Amino acid sequence: INMGSRHFLTLKDLSRKELKKILLRAAQLKEEHKKGVIYQPFIGKVMAMIFEKSSTRTRVSFETGMAQLGGSALFLSPNDTQLGRGECTEDSARVISSMVDIIMMRTFSQRYIENFALHSSVPVINALTDDHHPCQLLADMQAFIELRGDIEGKKVTWIGDGNNMCQTYMHAAGMLDFQLKIGCPRGFEPQETISDELKENVTLVHDPVEAVAGADLVITDTWTSMGQESEKILRKKSFKDFQVNESLMEKSNERSLFMHCLPAYRGEEINDTIMDSGYSAVWLAAENRLHSQKALIEFLLSEKKLK
Ligand code: CP
Ligand code: NVA
Known about the structure:
Blueprint: H1 16-35, E1 46-51, H2 57-68, E2 72-76, H3 89-99, E3 102-106, H4 110-118, E4 124-126, H5 134-148, E5 155-159, H6 164-176, E6 179-183, H7 192-197, E7 202-205, H8 208-212, E8 217-220, H9 232-238, H10 246-249, E9 257-260, H11 272-275, H12 282-306
Parallel strand pairs: 1-2, 1-3, 3-4, 5-6, 5-8, 6-7, 8-9
Helix pairs in contact: 1-5, 1-12, 2-12, 3-4, 5-12
Norvaline (NVA) is lined by residues 128, 163-165, 221-222, 225-226, 261.
């Protein structure tokens, strides 16, 4: 078991101060990148990217980010590595981490990535599990701050499934001190262990209109997450009143923003009008995956150097 590395398995692996520092740094890296500044502190460093689920944004942003920082990234899928043939987590983590400098992993269970990290000698980043998506929160928070300033004290509404994205928003509410109102269908609530910890910052209702009232930011996500494909028809029925559209957004605050981690299923959880409206910060947040993850990589690799 390795105790030396800092990992990023949930947002709470950072202190509030570290989270704010990374968000500031992300904005700075973005500005410098736009000016054409070349910044390559990690020449020769390699990131292993383990994807057990599909991805567009996560792969492109991490691979591009490592290249811009002077390093490189390696795409690994269970189909063509021994990960998919039953080599145990402990052995895989030990071997992969003996060769690379940092590991990014997208997988199903949170326990699996936690176990992997326990046996990794280098930092492990959660790039989505069934329970959390902390990298997306870095990008969303960077986008909100960029457009509206500090999010502390703001009202944020989550519409939809109480799973990974929602649960990481709950962590963010506690850490950045905003009020999160969750509007989800019955039976799709977030885990109680997370809600119980965050009573001061999080409330839950089952009516989307009530949830969205007075919101400064509205977020939603797909009704059927990766791994839930067999429930697609049932979910479509359960979530039918939870589409984010003009009539719902009208109930939010003036100057409210809309975000979605993407991929979006237009006509289901979101409609075309909102995706491309003045509310939409969707594209900015997607782009910020690149900048905020570069700040995260820099943080984790520099933390390690101090040891
Ligand atoms: N938002 C997000 O993580 O997108 P991908 O699934 O395309 O990586
Ligand atoms: N909730 C979605 C997010 C995809 C980035 C999923 O888990 O599939």
